[in-house]
C-alpha cells in the first residue's frame, strides 16, 4: 500500500516535471476571441491580427465558435487558402482542432463568399510577429542584505547551543 502510494506520487511528480519541461500546459485558443468565427468587419484583417498575437504550440487546441450560418474546414495549402477552395469536409460550431505538427494549418468558412470576405485563418506553430519572450522580471529587492553572514552565523549558533542545552536537560 505504502509502496503504491509512493509510486503514484512518483508518477505525479514525473508528470509535473514533464509539464514544466515542456514550458507550459496545452492552451485553448478561441479563434477571434470575443469576435468568434464570423465575417470580420469590412476592411479588417481580424484573423491575421488575432493569429499574429498568439504563440501556438503543439498540443494546443484551436476552437471555432460561432452563431449563425457558418462552417469551418481545413484546406491543404496556401494556394487553396488564397483561392478559398472548398475543402469538401466542413465542421459545425464548437469544433476543436488539436495542433499536432508544426505544419501551417489553413481554415476557411465555405458559406457564400465568407472566405473571400476574410473569414479565414492560418495557424502557424510558434508564430509570429509577437513571438519574442517577455522581458525577465526585475530582480527582487534584497531583504537579505541586512542579515550579514556574521549575524546569521551567531543566530544559528544560538539555536544550536540552545538545542544542545535542551538535550542535556533531557538526559539529566
Ligand atoms: Cu461564414
UniProtKB/TrEMBL annotation:
Residues 27-127 form the Phytocyanin domain. Keywords: Membrane, Signal, Transmembrane, Transmembrane helix. The chain crosses the membrane at residues 147-169. SUPFAM superfamilies: Cupredoxins. Residues 1-26 form the signal peptide. This is Umecyanin-like isoform X2. It comes from Prunus mume.
Amino acid at each position: 500500500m505504502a509502496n503504491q502510494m509512493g509510486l503514484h506520487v512518483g508518477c505525479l511528480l514525473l508528470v509535473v516535471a514533464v509539464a514544466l519541461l515542456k514550458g507550459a500546459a496545452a492552451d485553448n485558443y478561441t479563434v477571434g476571441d470575443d469576435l468568434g468565427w464570423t465575417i470580420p468587419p469590412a476592411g479588417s484583417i481580424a484573423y491575421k491580427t488575432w493569429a499574429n498575437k498568439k504563440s501556438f504550440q503543439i498540443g494546443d487546441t484551436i476552437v471555432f465558435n460561432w452563431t449563425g450560418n457558418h462552417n469551418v474546414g481545413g484546406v491543404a495549402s496556401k494556394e487553396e487558402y488564397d483561392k478559398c477552395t472548398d475543402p469538401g469536409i466542413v465542421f459545425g460550431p464548437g469544433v476543436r482542432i488539436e495542433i499536432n505538427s508544426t505544419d501551417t494549418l489553413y481554415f476557411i468558412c465555405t458559406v457564400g463568399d465568407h472566405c473571400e470576405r476574410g473569414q479565414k485563418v492560418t495557424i502557424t506553430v510558434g508564430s509570429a510577429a509577437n513571438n519574442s519572450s517577455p522581458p525577465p522580471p526585475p530582480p527582487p529587492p534584497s531583504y537579505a542584505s541586512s542579515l550579514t553572514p556574521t549575524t546569521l552565523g551567531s543566530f544559528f549558533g544560538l539555536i544550536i547551543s540552545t538545542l544542545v542545552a535542551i538535550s542535556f536537560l533531557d538526559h539529566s
